[in-house]
Amino acid sequence: MGVDDSPGRPDADRRYAERVLHISGAWQRAARGAGLLSPDGALAPTIFAEITAAAVRHDAVNLGQGFPDEDGPIEVLDAATEAIRSGVNQYPPGRGMPVLRDAIADHQHRFYGIDLDPEREILVTAGATEALTAALLALLDGPEDEVVVFEPYYDSYAAAIALAGARLVPVPLRWPALEPDLDDLRAAVTDRTRIILVNDPHNPTGTMFTADVRQEIVLLAERHDALIVTDEVYEHLVMGAAHTPISTLPGAAGRTLTISSGGKTFRTTGWKVGWVSGPADLVDAVLAVKQYLTYVNGAPFQPAIAVGLGLPDTYFDDLAATQRERRRLRCEHPGRVVLHGGGCAPDDGAGRGRVGLLPSTARTSRGGCDPTDRLRDGGAPRAVLVARAIRRVQAHGRHRGGRAAPRGIRSLNVASATLSPAG
Ligand SMILES: Cc1ncc(COP(=O)(O)O)c(C=O)c1O
């Protein structure tokens, strides 16, 4: 939808934009915050919808949306089927089914040594996205409150912060380390900072914050009496060393809400089973909002995700091994699998190798795709970039055996596999 007067653009667009701007309400803040509503009323689709439509139009690889190509583990799928058949189809308890809250507590203890009371310190949500939105709406209170966010960032952060009427303060991840500069971070966190919002491991770069960065976040939060909200949905999709939740750092637990979900870990993104954990009073504050967003969701999927969280170590080890292999492929073929910009930073020697890979669905506070020269989209329309990406993959397929890339490739993971020298 556009609103310019250039020849060929129907007046209907302009009239529609005028009508849209007359609809007052918080939706305008959310849409503007996410960069979807321009001052003249042009309302853009979300970046996910835009890229998915472009990929369909061009029969192209969709490198934009982060969903897996394979189904989840059979034990998890069977548990959901069994739950549906055995009648677990009505509203579950508001905080989530006890079996899932117990499994989340066990998981946090098993992998990170975190002790949680499943009755008071865990809340099941409709995916990590609802946990994030409920937490931001619950804890922010208008334009005086600031949220420090590392950019590029998952697009829902900006929308939820804007919906809460608060201010997003960006801190860019800098090339090539894809780390925030500590001075930038110190300058961004002030007494106005209500929340430092952390996404570690980070989407879209795959970077994991160093111990220094994590430490600084906690120190700054303590100094300025800020809360920390962490989005850890990629906790098991790591390319090197194991993930360290910020809440395990000294001084952090009392001021940190930790968010994750089963979508990425168990390849069940459509189930939208997520959770938030932390101090009981903060969790209660989130619950106060969450219960009026969805109340509850996904009854039969909750026990199934509980089964997943209890899978043996080999399952989680294999996830990490697969990520390492994908990083290797991307690093060997950066020009072929990266939609635009991007590159590959070598392993730093501590097993924390990073891939500078920027799907088109990343956002920055300036509405573009990346704050750094190395990772920007070069100004080409995104649809062109998608089309270019599929041509590269197809050319590579022909080069390797006269075959075009298989139709129906849906995401980067399979694109990587397609480019595998062995595959
Ligand atoms: C950083 C990040 N957080 C959260 C989500 C969404 O998680 P969920 O599907 O559990 O709402 C995504 C999805 O891509 C993501 O990239």
Description:
Strands 1-8-7-6-5-2-3-4 form an eight-stranded mixed beta sheet, sandwiched between helices. Strands 9-10 form a two-stranded antiparallel ribbon. The protein is α/β, with parallel strands linked by helices and 423 residues long. Helix content is 41%, strand content 12%. Mean pLDDT is 79; it is low at 1-8, 334-362, 367-387 and 392-423. It has 16 helices and ten strands. Pyridoxal-5'-phosphate binds next to helix 6.
Radius of gyration: 22 Å
Largest sheet composition? 8 strands, mixed
Task: Kindly estimate the percentage of residues that lie in beta strands according to DSSP.
Answer: 5-15%
Low-pLDDT runs:
1-8, 334-362, 367-387, 392-423
The helix content, as a percent range, equals 40-55%
